[in-house]
Amino acid sequence: MEPKEVSPYTRTLDCVHCGLCLQACPTYNVLGLETDSPRGRIYFMRMLAEGRIADPEAVRPHLDRCLDCRACETACPSGVRYGEILESVRSSMARQRPPRGFAAWLRRTLLTRLVAHQGRLRFAFALGRLAEVVGVRWLAGAAGILPRHMAVLLPPIPPARERRPLHGTWPARGRERGRVAFFTGCVMEQMFGRIHRATIEVLTANGFTVDVPRAQACCGALLVHDGQAQEAEPLARRNLAAFRDHAVVVNNSAGCGCALKEYGHLLGSAEARDFAARCRDVSEFLHEQGLVATPRPFPHKVAYDDPCHLCHGQGVRKPPRALLGQVPGLTHVPHHDPESCCGSAGIYNLVQPELAWQIGTTKAKALVASGAEAVATGNPGCMLQIRAHLRALGSPMRVVHPVELLVP
């Protein structure tokens, strides 16, 4: 018998209003408003469920300003599953009262009609690359058609060889220690193909055969964060089918990994919970199995910054640091509050640019103050956000994925 799903309203009752979440919340730290804190939002969501708010639209801006970074879950002594509550309420509101306006329509359309379809997304990136080559992007920026915050955040689209889809099997080098499947995602595939190839190189060098199923789909994380959980469910089912025969599913994107591990909540089935239990971040997996191939030397000072959906969402903190400690010549330097959000949060830095910019600037200043020469973080959105803010401060600090430093 399937366990009964606990309602979002019942989960709000776990909150004891202690306020320990306040200082962990990025929006509360910037705005200083109880209404833009986890505790305040839980009050709002409870009042919505009880029918005590006459106009739900008055609450939507406060819920939309939440980054869903889960830092409040780490700080909470009562184990409130804030992320599940927020995403369920956002989804319910989106069904009952869809956000109005052209911007909301465009966001929904892009997420459901483009990002969720890998073939269309690949075609869009190919067009985007062509536009860059012929100078259309520069003209759009100069004419003000491309908003400044988007122009700063989005780096040049990689060439076609880096964006080529990875399908098939890569055999282990040397003695085979096991076999894993690799989840490639959507935006990660198009913007960070080099990291995918580095991931496969590291896994095979450490004795693992890597399968990349062609039938896999987008994880659906961006849809869930946007309140479109129903649209994410078919994608989740496709992934369950694509990885049904694999004992371990490895990914290298904290946001995707967190979404995959929460398929049990999204779909509410035993099969989804079993799939979630088989998912591993690449750092988590390599730390569990141990490295047998020595990474190439990297004689630089490196600050590690925790992606929110890896440390708060998945509870993975030690593995990336332990692996970086095995890189010859690398010196790990700490920085202030590595678990604070950088302001990326999926597409948050595009839809809430002013708040995201303030949060990102705070993060970049902390990294610069550490004296590091490079920052390592395991999420594509974090990499783009941190890179943009470091450049805005005039810092030459490199931004890398931890797996790139583990290549032998």
Provide a descriptive summary of the structure in words.
By secondary structure, this protein is α/β, with parallel strands linked by helices. It folds into 4 domains: 89 residues, Alpha-helical ferredoxin (Fumarate Reductase Iron-sulfur Protein, Chain B, domain 2, Orthogonal Bundle); 57 residues, no CATH class; 127 residues; 113 residues, 3-Layer(aba) Sandwich (Rossmann fold), CATH 3.40.50. 50% of the residues lie in helices and 8% in strands. The protein is built from 24 helices and 9 strands. The strands form 2 sheets. Strands 1-3-2-4-5 form a 5-stranded mixed β-sheet. A 4-stranded parallel β-sheet has the order 7-6-8-9, with helices on both faces. Helix 24 links the parallel strand 8 and strand 9. Helix 19 packs across helix 21 and helix 23 packs across helix 24. The longest helix has 17 residues. It is globular. 43% of the residues are buried.
The total of beta strands comes to: 9
Coarse shape: globular
The computed structural class is alpha/beta
End-to-end span in angstroms? 48 Å
Please mark out the parts with pLDDT under 50 across 5 or more consecutive residues, or reply none. Answer: none
Largest sheet data:
5 strands, mixed
Helix content: 40-55%
**What is the overall number of helices?**
24
Mean pLDDT: 93
Strand arrangement across the biggest beta sheet: 1-3-2-4-5
Question: What's the Cα radius of gyration?
Answer: 21 Å
Into which percentage range does the β-strand content fall? 5-15%
Total number of domains = 4
